Amino acid sequence: MIYAIINRLNGKKILIAGFGREGKSTLRFLQKYIPDAMIGIADKNESAFQDIDKERYELFSGDDYLNAATDYDIIIKTPGISVNNIEIDCSKITSQTDLFLEAYHNQVIGITGTKGKSTTSSLIYHIIKGVKALKGKGNDVILAGNIGIPILDCIDDINERTIIVYELSAHQLQFINKSPHVGVLLNVFEEHLDHFGTFDKYKDAKINVLRYMSDGDFAIVNNSLYHETESLSANRIDFESFDLNNFNINWEEIPLMGEHNKLNVKAALCACRSFEFSLEDLVPHLYTFKPLEHRQEFVGNFNGVKFYNDSISTIPQATIAALNTIKNVNFLLLGGFDRGIDYSPLISYLKENVMPYVLLTGKAGQTIKNMLQDADYKGNILEYTDMESAFEIVRNISKNGDVCLLSPAAASYDRYKNFEERGKIFKELAKKF
């Protein structure tokens, strides 16, 4: 099946658009399997080319780095590259995801959603790996994609029996022509509007995980989006309504907190079942799953204060889910990079469920502050400049038994490399509290 990818690219003049982790992975693939390919590499930042043979490849950087696209037959776009407001022939655009799904469609469980996709993908991988090991069927399952592993880096580990658990972002789904054999659409909320421009375009990219399915494929979709999949010829499953009452699941023993995670568990079980695993075999492995970092993570009790790291929460709905799970929060850290999303749901929630102290930062924090004041919020609204200053506020006000939650409802890019860095700093400061 790898030859389907090679044949599609062979003899083409190829531009790699974006030279981060996935762009470098694409170059390694081309160097190994199509060593004579004519390759150009485009990245806005010239520093991305530090370790590149500048004599071997055409390199393009600066504000107009994508202008070179007109001179190439095919553009392999990495997820973070936006082509909004750029004159470019979109028929030339492909990606690792597009190339891979076209070749390996029948072996893929693809998972997307504004929130929950990393947890659900990791849970599916954990369950299938556990079942296969118990049945002595080897370890023919891999986890890749948006979780941090470029799919083409895994290609040498795939045989015809391998199940590929593929976490997919909207960016990865934007330019595809084939959906996975099993597609999971967990939810869609306002997010990444800075990249897509409108919510409809973002949502449209998400639905691509199901859009190109055929007879015999499986669409695992939440209740609110189920009606939007009526035209699919695939088998449709509403995972929210999936009845697990006959399997005596002890939800208290599953190491995932909150009602939203019950939905993630249901979606994971539906996806695995679509690959003909029995629920009797799947359910026991739920109890041995290790939750991912930065997701309603209990950091510890330090100097009498309990700290929870939910840095992954970059939208209001995720923060609301955290507040519904972690009770009696005294200090809620909100704000960061403002993507222009609607904070009304969070404002309504906070007005009905007043936190003693809401700590705000960044442009998103200013937006939330203004909306809370307009809503006549009854709790204390404080502002902080960086994580250290937030902890100084907590140190000065907190008392024994208080709960401090980082669940920002905003992206981290105004101050941090990513949500992981933000969460790591929070955890380090908590442990020194």
Output the keywords.
433 residues, 6-stranded parallel sheet, 17 strands
Description:
By secondary structure, the chain is of the alpha/beta class. The chain is 33% helix and 17% strand. The strands form three sheets. The protein has a six-stranded parallel β-sheet with strand order 7-8-6-9-10-11, sandwiched between helices. Helix 2 links the parallel strand 1 (13-17) and strand 2. The longest helix is centred in the N-terminal third of the chain and has 18 residues, at 117-134. The mean pLDDT is 93.
Helix and strand layout, with pairings?
Layout lengths: L1 H8 L3 E5 L3 H13 L4 E5 L15 E3 L13 E4 L15 E2 L1 H9 L3 E5 L4 H18 L6 E5 L17 E5 L2 H4 L8 E4 L7 H4 L2 H13 L6 E4 L13 E4 L20 H16 L4 H4 L14 E6 L2 E5 L6 H10 L5 E5 L8 H9 L4 E5 H13 L5 E4 L3 H11 L5 E4 L12 H13 L2
Parallel strand pairs: 1-2, 1-4, 2-3, 4-5, 6-8, 6-9, 7-8, 9-10, 10-11, 13-17, 14-15, 14-17, 15-16
Antiparallel strand pairs: 12-13
Helix pairs in contact: 1-3, 4-8, 10-11
